[in-house]
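Bumping with the actual sequence this time:
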Amino acid sequence: MTLLILSAAGLLLLLIVLLLAWLRRPASTPTHRPHRPTEPAGAGSPPPRTEVAQTTPPPPPAAARTWLTPPSALTSFQRLGREQLSPPRQAAITAALQRVAQPSRALHQLVSPDFLAQASSTDLAELLQGEPQVTAKVLATVNSPLYGLQAPVMSLGPAITYLGLNTVRGLCLH
């Protein structure tokens, strides 16, 4: 008998807590749907949507915004078209752009969709063996404190397996 009374008292207490929680809900919660006017038959257009106003913080006042001023060397910057440049200047710009190093063939292969669709960690390790800078970056990343390995990883294959293909690909592209 006492067990039944205790169960009933527990159920009553639970109902009281739920009722109090329901009564304390925010007042902005609508309890009914707003009335939408009906359109005449054959109007052909869907009823207008009512958007719920989202509360966003107001932008800071104009006085609080700080704008960076460009360096004095850039204040007189003007974009020039090719026809506005003298032939020697065009030749100098073309020569400077030709001296920019092109990515290696291995990195071109790395970003190709065909390679990424069927690449394994072994394939990626073989591809990156010829790229010492990328290999050093991958090994430095896997041996960093971020990963907390007990023993350092010394070869590229286990490093790629541990980091994952997407992480290694991201390291190669940066």
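The tokens above came from a reply further down the thread. The two ends are 73 Å apart (CA to CA).
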